[in-house]
Amino acid sequence: MKSSMCYVVGVALALFSLCVSATDPGSLQDFCVAAKNPNDAVFVNGLFCKDPALAVAEDFFLPRFNKPGVIKSPVGSVVTQANVAQIAGLNTLGISMARIDYAPKGLNPPHTHPRATEILVVLEGTLHVGFVTSNPDNKLFAKVLYKGDVFVFPEGLVHFQMNLEKTPAVAISALSSQNPGVITIANAVFGSKAPISDDVLAKAFQVDKKVVDFLQSRFWMDN
C-alpha cells in the first residue's frame, strides 16, 4: 500500500512539475497578435539573439547613470532608463533599472509598469512615495523616504514619487522585466491618440465636458 501511494504521489509531482515548466512566459509587450501567415510573423518582443561568439563587453554596459538627467518635463522629473533598449545584453534576463532625477518639488506622476515590480532606493533628497491597490479597495500605501531608504511598488499598481525638498533629488530603481513598460495615467487618459470621447471622460470623472476639453488640450509630455 505504501509503495502504491508513493508511486501515485510521485506521478502527481511529476505531472505538476511538467505543467509548471509548460506555462507561458511573462509577456514583454502590450499584445502579441497571432500571425496566420508565417511571412507576417516576427520574433516575440521583436528581438533576435546575437551569436554568443560575437558578443562584446559593450553589449552589457551603459555609461549614463553617473550623470544627472536633463529635466524638461513640466512635472519636474526625468527618468533615465536602462532596459533592453539601452543594454542589449539584458535580453531574456528579466531585469532592468532606471535613474530618476527630480527637480525641487518635482514629481514622477502616477503611472504603472504593466510587466514589472519596482524596488526604489533614494540616493539624495526626500521623497513622498506611494502606490494604490486594485479595485474595490483602492487603498493607498504611502511613505516619506530619506537618503538610503528603499520602497517597493508591486507589479501593475499605480504609483508615484514626489520630491518634498527645495533641492534636487535622485533615486535608482530596479524592475523585474527587461522591458517593464510604463503607462502614465494622465497621458493615457487625456493625451491618447485619438482622444477618448469627452462624453466618456466627463461621465467617468463626473465633471463638465469643458473640464475634460481643457485637460485634453494640455501638452502631455512623456517622462
Automatic annotation (TrEMBL):
InterPro entries: Cupin_1, Germin, Germin_Mn-BS, RmlC-like_jellyroll, RmlC_Cupin_sf. Oxalate binds at N108, H113, E118. Residues 1-22 form the signal peptide. Disulfide bonds join C32-C49. CDD domains: cupin_OxOx. It is found in: Secreted, Extracellular space, Apoplast. Keywords: Apoplast, Disulfide bond, Manganese, Metal-binding, Secreted, Signal. Mn(2+) binds at H111, H113, E118, H159. Residues 63-213 form the Cupin type-1 domain. The keyword tRNA-binding does not apply. Its main location: secreted. One of its GO terms (molecular function) is manganese ion binding. One of its GO terms (cellular component) is apoplast. Belongs to the germin family. This is Germin-like protein. It comes from Papaver somniferum.
